[in-house]
């Protein structure tokens, strides 16, 4: 499962749930597939649009169900 991390929210992430298809899916898949899988060797920045779910008794407890990914940029480390 992918996790969104913001440098301003240290130690916190939001799990990403992806439907079968969403706007920007191809761009996100291509960005994560460059170099090593995932974002170990790159910074992938974008705007995520979706529904946030707070489930305090579940793990993960913070989830975004994606509807769209916008303004994607990738910078190799």
Quick description:
With 77 residues, this protein is mostly beta strands. It has one helix at residues 25-33, and strands at residues 3-5, 13-17, 42-54, 62-76. The protein has a 4-stranded mixed β-sheet with strand order 1-2-4-3, covered by helices on one side.
Q: Uncertain segments of ≥5 residues (pLDDT<50)?
A: none
Query: Biggest sheet: strands, sense, closure?
Result: 4 strands, mixed
Q: First CA to last CA: what distance?
A: 22 Å
Quaternary organization: single chain
Structure class:
mainly beta
Shape from CA axes?
Answer: globular
Verbal overview:
With 77 residues, this protein is mainly β. The chain has one domain (3-76). The protein is built from 1 helix and 4 strands. The protein has one helix at 25-33, and strands spanning 3-5, 13-17, 42-54, 62-76. The protein has a 4-stranded mixed beta sheet with strand order 1-2-4-3, with helices on one face. Strand 3 and strand 4 form a beta hairpin. The longest helix is centred in the middle third of the chain and has 9 residues, at 25-33. The chain is globular and about 35 Å long.
SSE diagram, text form:
Blueprint: E1 3-5, E2 13-17, H1 25-33, E3 42-54, E4 62-76
Parallel strand pairs: 2-4
Antiparallel strand pairs: 1-2, 3-4
Give me some keywords for this one.
about 80 residues; mainly beta; 4-stranded mixed β-sheet; globular
């Amino acid at each position: 499962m992918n996790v969104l991390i913001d440098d301003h929210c240290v130690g916190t992430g939001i799990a990403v749930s992806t439907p079968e298809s969403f706007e920007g899916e191809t761009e996100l898949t291509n960005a994560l597939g460059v170099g090593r899988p995932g974002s170990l060797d790159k910074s992938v920045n974008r705007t995520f649009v979706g529904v946030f779910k707070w489930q305090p008794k579940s793990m993960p407890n913070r989830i975004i169900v994606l509807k769209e990914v916008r303004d994607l940029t990738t910078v190799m480390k």
